[in-house]
Amino acid sequence: MTQLSYLEQLEAEAIYIIREVAAECENPVMLYSIGKDSSVMLHLALKAFYPEKPPFPFMHIDTTWKFKEMITFRDSIAERYGLDLIVYTNEQGVKDNINPFDHGSAYTDIMKTQALKDSLNKYGFDAAFGGARRDEEKSRAKERVFSFRNSEHAWDPKNQRPELWKLYNTRINKGESIRVFPLSNWTEKDIWNYIKQEDIPIVPLYFAKERSFIERDGNIILIDDERMRLKAGEEIKQASIRFRTLGCYPLTGGCYSTATTLEKIITETLGAVSSERITRVIDNEAAGSMERRKREGYF
Amino acid sequence: MKQPEVWNGARGRGIFKVKSLLKFITCGSVDDGKSTLIGHMLYDAKLIFADQKRALELDSKLGSNEGEIDYSLLLDGLMAEREQGITIDVAYRYFTTSERSFIVADCPGHEQYTRNMAVGASFADVAVILVDASAGIVKQTKRHARICALMGIKHIVLAVNKMDLIDYDRYIFDEIADEFKALCAQLEVTSVQIIPVSATVGDNVTKKSAQTQWYTGLPLLGYLENIEVGTQSINSGFIMPVQRVCRPNPQFRGFQGEVQAGTVAVGDTVKALPSNEEAVITKILVTDKECKCAVQGQPVTICTDKEIDISRGSVLVKDFQLIINNLISAKILWMDNHKLVMGRNYFLKCGTRILPATVIKIKHREDINTGKHINAEVIHKNEIAEVDISVSEKLIFDSFKHNHFMGSFILIDRVSNMTSACGIIEHDIRRGNNIIWHETAVTREFRANQKAQKPLTIWFTGLSGSGKSTIANALELRLTAMHKHTMLLDGDNVRHGLNNNLGFTEKDRVENIRRVAEVARLMNDAGLITITAFISPYSEDRESARKIIGSDNFVEIYIATPLEECEKRDIKGLYKKARNNEIPNFTGISSPYEQPVNPDLSIDTTKLNIEEAVDMIIDYLNFSRN
Question: To probe the interface with B, which of A15, A142, A296 has the most B CB atoms within 10 Å?
Fold first, then answer.
């Protein structure tokens, strides 16, 4: 009897979940955030339906503050695989000049959470795949693979639908939706090992390189374009850095690193002393802030 | 996508050797220290990140534990949990030691969260049940062991915690161990390990404790690293439930799913269930790679040499006996706040198939703490029951004992879509030699439950032209939209048929209403909501209708449009004719109308429009409006 490896088991589980959604939900969408987890999820979707293309569109919520390299990468991937890619931006937020410098957590709420809810309503998606993993954060560790959301997109953590064996319940009433997390049981190390095993393309920002940045509140912030505002006394530095997670550049902290290959990244991840979420500026605001945002409809 | 030429080519290139995966749960009574135990294990094994450790140390200082590290804070992730100091839902944690990779689900202990414990148990190979050494085996210990056994867990570890509080007393430990072994024997769980631990101090968590020299086994982590679980693997035969059919172009038709048992190879003849058609496999894709064969657990796409009838829910099999029947006998755990009622219709999901199903018999409830059988008419949340279920079409399944995947199911509420129950199939019921249909006469309540509604008669009364029929029609439309099952009785469908021998004399009017009331009651018996729209002018007749139908099910609605308004509208020109003495015995003109003294609702159509009137009725009936 051939025993599947740990990664093969995780892959099989994710593919099973992705196929269930495609078979049972009317109008699913895969959220594509361009990061490493999204890259793995996209790769799994391509494998799940091969030789057919994934039978659902992909959607990127573009806050207009993503790293330039992410956008270039996104467009090249969409073209390479012939993806049906929707790029959605909260245009009102852009008009109102909502930005990460002046608006703090309101920025995340308007340009990410609100934009996500608006886009899901606009296209009438009844199921949305997300690349979140349970090892990322404590409230995520408690979330089901199929996470039910009411018509306000809110999560009720105290009353989650039971989820047993592989018998996923995809049934919902009109206006309700489900967030689906096929990577729930993957860890950061699993993601990197799988990227290496499958040779999955990722944004070059994950690899160490000489880059220009400033240090702000202990975070390494890349100067990605001319919109970056420097505070008095901040000086531009140059060093070999890389990113463990990718998001909006003014809110994403990098780390000093010389890991220029996947092997080195994996070794670095193995010996890491901090969890990856520490590089997300917003997550460190207050205990329970992730749960609060999720209840309000954040992924 | 890049396609490696040889399958397995990528394997072994990873930096680590291929480690086995162990999924386990921790459960036990409230305050037995489950979260603390895992927290301590992660902390000792240096498996938490520095920022998490720092946050933990900070949080602990704020807590009530006098600054000592409170390991449970690592796991109780929800705000409500941290505030109340309890575990509500399952938390999943991931860690890898030099020996093995682990996924641990920390399960809640409170009885009200039993269903969340079952969620954790359904995915685990091993259960670690904690018991407080100073309290011994309690109700919850037994309940959790019972649920673990129900969900198919074969290996149980009893961690006798808080040994420090009983001075590591071996005698007390042995007593607890003996009692637990007896319980496991009763539950037919044969792999049982009992370990004395202290989660707060750390005895026998990752290291052997000097305090318990008399304990010769491994500490908890060591035991988990070494236990052989051998998943329910079946080498012979082959089953693949079809998740979807892949048709990218007219030349390609493949069946996608996960191999749930055995192995399959190109050239094998497989049978499709339920059609029983056979075909030879011409191609197998394991994910996106073409392979000669596939094994249990792999996601595959299978092509066959000829077109056979296969769609989602079909099962491909080879040398494997599955059962096809629409009557099953099962054990269920009820998880919905709404109770289980016999006769109610649910969706049953088994494998990749969803079918309407009805619980036709509750054989008995099983006391979750003692296992005793108790007679029961209804089943409430967190209760276990043995039931018979009738499925609308033939179901393809296996007994849970034989195959977990094909032998487990969930029941889904058809209105709320809640996952109401999980169940395991014990066996099928052969129609020829079973007696269930004779025992269970189909009752009024059964029929009503099946329609998920309370049967009622909504009795409209009022003058001719008052708007009874218009509102009754609008009401029926609205109720139908709310998935209610209804029937409207009015002059048109009764006077022309059933009552076509009756005229408009007082005697005939009395008989007319009597018959209508009897028909309404029969329709209520059938489970329907009946709406009647008749002038029904005499109080006495309306009272007798109420008696026939039963006052609990009778709602009298008076359409109180004034005579002048009805006469002004005179849609059918009847009032004009009556005033000209062309119609004898016309209610309101030449025949009396006795106003209801105390109707359930009174509606004046000069003040409300039709939709407002319907809203008012729906509100009164206490059905939620959409």
Answer: A142
